[in-house]
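Lecture 7 notes: from sequence to structure.

We start with a single chain of 120 residues. Read the sequence below before looking at the structure.
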Amino acid sequence: QVQLVESGGGLVQPGGSLRLSCAASGSIFTIYAMGWYRQAPGKQRELVATITIDGSTNYADSVKGRFTISRDHAKNTMYLQMNSLKPEDTAVYYCNGHIRNYDLESRDYWGQGTQVTVSS
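Now the structure, written as tokens:
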């Protein structure tokens, strides 16, 4: 079994910062691309940022220049540094990983989500 667990969400004022973490554990053979997605109430889940196994990154236009995605291969952990937060960033943030397990099956795994609320 492979598990992804997010942490670091919370309530922050506009203009503030948060750092999300996503720790992968279990029967992991290789972690390929990873990414952060978010879903606001009444809206569809949307891509926030992705990072490949070699560190190439991609961001949604709405977060470019404010958010930074990174990963620590040794710890099987991905991060999202969020600065200059806006009320419209309020959402449940989900971690995604394309992972090959010890059975050599590759598939997408999702975390349970962490709430980020930006409000004064």
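Residues 63 and 117 are 15 Å apart (CA to CA). Keep this in mind for problem set 3.
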